[in-house]
Amino acid sequence: MNWNPAKKAQMLLLEPNVECYEQKALGTGIIPIAGSARAGKSTLMLALVEWAVKHTQRSFYFVGVPDAYIEALPDHIRSKSSNPTMNELTTLRDGIVILDDTAVSMSSRDSATTQSRMINRIAGVISHLGLTLILTTQSMAGIDLSLLRYTEMAPLVKRVDKMALRVERSEWTEEIKDAQDELHRFNYDRSLYWSVADEQLCKHPFSEWMASDVLSRPFRYLSQSELDSQLFGENKTKQARKKVSSGE
């Protein structure tokens, strides 16, 4: 399928200064993809990545995913991709960073380290690093509108569960509800999404390779030790094991 993402998303995915709709592409910013579980966020993200592989020379950084995830990508994407850790985020340059809100939550070492704080910290520097961040998230609660002072944003919205709408932060509520009204007209077709910046309903393709389970549930494929380390931290895991041992 020959397709193009929403205009604002293209502006952030293309390399800086490339012609895009009679404007110069920005090549940096944040593309949040919001939607409930199994709404097709990962498929849309992968469609954006595949488009960017075809139209740019940028590298792709899938933060915190297991090696099995990278191995499941088709050759033309895998050859340009890597899976750095969250701690390596600031070492990346001039590429597209793919970040799942699960990865942010799992990397939090205490209750004060939230998705919101993580995104706020990196938003001010991604333009200096030449990075575009694609963030898949079940809630826009961590995406503060004040970030627009520091970076460009192109929010894309999939189906959001009605219960989740009740706890969505107020500054995004109207946009999320508008998106749901438009998607509802087409029975929440998984190939459709709403571009908030363009105020437009858009369609994206689905390639067969995107159906791989590891690509939609990557953290299921971490080894137990890696999962424990990301969830609890090495020290906490070791302490827990010592307590179990001492009780025997």
Notes on the structure:
With 248 residues, this protein is α/β, with parallel strands linked by helices. It has a single domain (7-246), classed as Rossmann fold, CATH 3.40.50. It is built from twelve helices and ten strands. The strands form two sheets. An eight-stranded mixed beta sheet has the order 5-4-6-7-3-8-9-10, sandwiched between helices. The protein has a two-stranded antiparallel ribbon with strand order 1-2. Helix 11 (224-232) crosses helix 12 (234-246). It is globular and about 45 Å long. The N and C termini lie far apart (61 Å).
First-to-last CA distance:
61 Å
CATH class division? Alpha Beta
Number of helices: 12
The portion of residues forming beta strands comes to 15-25%
CATH topology: Rossmann fold
Helix fraction, binned, reads: 25-40%
Give the total of beta strands. Answer: 10
On the 0 to 100 scale, the average pLDDT is 85
Question: Quick one: overall form?
Answer: globular
The CATH architecture: 3-Layer(aba) Sandwich
Integer-rounded radius of gyration = 18 Å
Q: Name the poorly predicted regions.
A: 109-113, 235-248
Largest sheet: 8 strands, mixed
Order of helices and strands: HEEEHEHHEEHHHEEHHEEHHH
Total domains, how many? 1
Strand order of the largest sheet: 5-4-6-7-3-8-9-10
Structural class: alpha/beta
List the main descriptive attributes of the protein structure presented here.
40% helix, 248 residues, alpha/beta, 12 helices
